[in-house]
Design goal:
Layout (H helix, E strand, L loop, with lengths): L18 H10 L11 E6 L3 H4 L6 H4 L9 H19 L4 E6 L8 H6 L24 E5 L10 H7 L4 E7 L1 H14 L3 E5 L3 E2 L3 H14 L2 E3 L1 H7 L1
Parallel strand pairs: 1-2, 1-4, 2-3, 4-5, 4-6, 5-7
Helix pairs in contact: 7-8
């Protein structure tokens, strides 16, 4: 593993974030690379049918499957996650699956007040997408809040495994991926976000959050570049 800067492809926020926006962050000194450590783990967040639908469809069509679906962009990301899974498993590196647990009436809380549809997802919606489902030895972490660290044993597992770098995949870019990246950064882990292996229901929100994570909390690279690092 190299501890040097990550290779960069064209920024996924190009055309959304203005040149003036980028210049402001550059002038202030943001966006320096975190680099890679020597002990990476892959984190696959919430890649369940409820976030992609039962089959690839345009966004608004996929809402007929689940109101929480991101549609075909999720299925495109699944293909990239599958590539990363293959590489991590071949290298014998840890793979962890933080995932939303089925909701019960007592789980409503503030999230259900904000997004009532999350309480209507059927049992199949909580199943892992078959192409990237957990395998033997992978670690499952049911969660009930955006960050994979909040209320779970994720930090304990990572310490035990001596992990120093987290590759974050899954969804949503602006929600659980971002919350997990912020907490991982706060725990002093190095963070890599392969931008084509995460997804969101809005391309604009997806791009803006990738830009912001790249400036403050993570190295944002393509899956192809992430695989080269491995």
């Amino acid at each position: 593993m190299s501890d040097g800067p990550a290779p960069r492809s064209d920024p996924p926020w190009r055309g959304v974030i203005t040149a003036d926006d980028e210049a402001r962050y550059q002038a202030a000194g943001f966006g320096k690379p975190l680099g890679r450590g020597s002990s990476p783990a892959l984190v696959v967040i919430d890649v369940q049918y409820r976030t992609v639908g039962n089959s690839p469809k345009p966004f608004f069509d996929s809402l007929a499957d689940y109101p929480t679906s991101c549609g075909e962009v999720g299925w495109a990301a699944v293909e990239r996650i599958a590539e990363l899974l293959g590489a991590f498993r071949a290298a014998g590196r840890p793979v962890l699956y933080p995932h939303v647990a089925p909701k019960h009436a007592y789980d409503a809380g503030r999230l259900a007040a904000k997004v009532p549809a999350i309480m209507t997802v059927d049992a199949h919606g909580y199943d892992f997408v078959e192409q990237v489902a957990p395998g033997p030895g992978d670690i499952l972490l049911p969660k009930r809040h955006p960050s994979a660290f909040f209320g779970t044993a994720l930090a304990s597992y990572l310490i035990d495994l001596r992990v120093d770098t987290l590759y974050l995949t899954g969804c949503t870019t602006s929600g659980c991926v971002r919350a997990t990246a912020v907490d991982a950064f706060a725990y002093n882990f190095r963070v890599v976000v392969p931008h084509d292996a995460v997804y969101d229901r809005s391309p604009t929100v997806h791009a803006v959050n990738l830009f912001d994570m790249a400036q403050k909390y993570a190295d944002v690279v393509s899956t192809a570049d992430a695989l080269r690092l491995l």
